[in-house]
Design a protein that fits this description.
Belongs to the class-I pyridoxal-phosphate-dependent aminotransferase family. Its cofactor is pyridoxal 5'-phosphate. GO terms for molecular function: kynurenine-oxoglutarate transaminase activity; pyridoxal phosphate binding. Keywords: Aminotransferase, Pyridoxal phosphate, Transferase. By secondary structure, this protein is an alpha/beta fold. The protein folds into two domains: about 15-40 and about 285-380, Alpha-Beta Complex (Aspartate Aminotransferase, domain 1), CATH 3.90.1150; about 45-280, Type I PLP-dependent aspartate aminotransferase-like (Major domain) (Aspartate Aminotransferase, domain 2), CATH 3.40.640. About 40% of the residues lie in helices and about 15% in strands. The chain has 15 helices and twelve strands. Strands 2-8-7-6-5-3-4 form a seven-stranded mixed β-sheet, with helices on both faces. Strands 9-12-11 form a three-stranded antiparallel β-sheet. Helix 5 (about 125-130) links the parallel strand 3 (about 115-120) and strand 4 (about 135-140). Helix 1 runs parallel beside helix 14 and helix 13 runs parallel beside helix 15. It is globular and about 55 Å long. The termini are far apart.
Length: about 375
């Protein structure tokens, strides 16, 4: 028998896999994993098919097809008034998760500290730990998931290498305000800390709010990697295509790792997405599109015993079940799946010390038919 010591001894099967497998086994409505159950725009599909026919079937350039990098640069300029050079400051990646892992690979060394905010998307901590870094978790406060900026300031040490933020935030559905970003900017000023800003839900934000990208704040932008996801934006998570932007000195280091763990990503899809992205309406209409789904779902469950604050962004809605049972959230989520045939994600698995606030996350990126069936079930509990 080979003998080895695991680099991730405490990591097992993710809660997303656990709940999706349970949903499939129980033939339950799956509102756990975050993926749409409706198709991508046929126009985008045709653009990818056209790229296939035009024989964009060999390796793309390492940082990505130029048509797509130029479209990303135009989008960043249009939305956030920030210029990123398509030659040197933009890289197309195999989804945002690959971008995040590559950023951490390029910069985090053994014993470096990385601040993350919990509940946190579950790829952050393992990537840090794989490279010998130490995760410094800061728990978001209460059911409003607010940031204690004094705690953030006091958590920074001489070993702090990086901070990871996520807005709009998965799993809570909250967003960082302009004031939050300004406070963060003041805290990081005059440090060598790299900011990794996970903005995969940048186009899914509600009630007239504006996404506060790190690109909007000069003192943050100069130290920030911003990661994004076309899978989240254009309803095709299975394509696994995203990108990141950063100032050239940071991106130079990113490329050194990217060229060896991925090199380049799907070429015809890059051509199709690059063409599709040229029309801003294809992403500007997304807030209204998803808010309609959020509002439909919340209206449908208003007679239930679940309580909620409407999601501010993402395509997730957090529901409190504190008026229903005292069960731990993982047990309750599994029981809902087995007995009531509806699957969700318990939030405690993302919290520091698995804090349990009796909250479940439901994905509303579904057809109205699916959401109506899910609401009928939730109203009976």
């Amino acid at each position: 028998m080979l003998q080895h010591t695991s680099k991730l001894p405490n990591v097992g099967t993710t809660i997303f896999t656990v709940m999706s497998q349970l949903a499939a086994k129980e033939n339950a409505i799956n509102l756990s994993q975050g993926f749409p159950n409706f198709p991508s725009d046929p126009v985008l599909i045709e653009m990818v098919q056209q790229a296939l026919r035009e024989n964009y079937n060999q390796y793309a350039p390492m940082p990505g097809a130029m048509i797509l990098r130029e479209a990303i640069a135009e989008k960043m300029e249009y939305l956030y008034q920030r210029s990123y050079h398509p030659d040197t400051e933009i890289v197309v990646t195999a989804g945002a998760t690959q971008a995040i892992f590559t950023i951490i690979s390029a910069f985090v060394r053994p014993n470096d500290e990385v601040i993350i905010f919990t509940p946190a998307y579950d790829c952050y901590a393992p990537a840090v730990e794989t490279h010998g870094g130490k995760v410094v978790p800061i728990q978001l406060q209460g059911k409003e998931f607010t940031v204690d900026w004094d705690e953030v300031r006091n958590s920074i040490t001489s070993k702090t290498k990086m901070m990871i933020i996520n807005t709009p935030h998965n799993p809570s559905g909250t967003v960082l305000s302009a004031d939050d970003m300004l406070q963060l900017s003041k805290i990081l000023e005059n440090t060598n800390i790299i900011l990794l800003s996970d903005e995969v839900y940048e186009h899914i934000i509600f009630d007239g709010a504006q996404h506060q990208s790190a690109a909007l704040f000069p003192k943050l932008a100069e130290r920030a990697f911003i990661t994004a996801s076309f899978g989240k934006t254009f309803h095709n998570t299975g394509w696994k295509m995203g990108y990141c932007v950063a100032p050239k000195p940071l991106m130079d280091e990113f490329k050194k790792v990217h060229q060896f763990n991925v090199f380049s990503v799907n070429h015809p899809m890059q051509i199709g997405v690059g063409t599709y992205l040229k029309n801003p309406e294809n992403y500007l209409q997304l807030p209204a599109f998803f808010q309609e789904k959020r509002d439909f779902f919340l209206e449908a469950i208003k007679a239930s015993r679940f309580t909620f604050t409407p999601s501010q962004g993402t395509y997730f809605q957090v529901l409190s079940y504190e008026n229903i049972t005292d069960e731990p959230d993982v047990e309750f989520a599994k029981r809902l799946t087995k007995e009531h045939k509806i699957a969700s994600i318990p939030l405690s698995v993302f919290n520091t010390n698995n804090e349990d606030h009796k909250l479940l996350r439901f994905c509303f990126a579904k057809t109205e038919e699916t959401l109506a069936k899910a609401a009928d079930i939730l109203n009976t509990i």
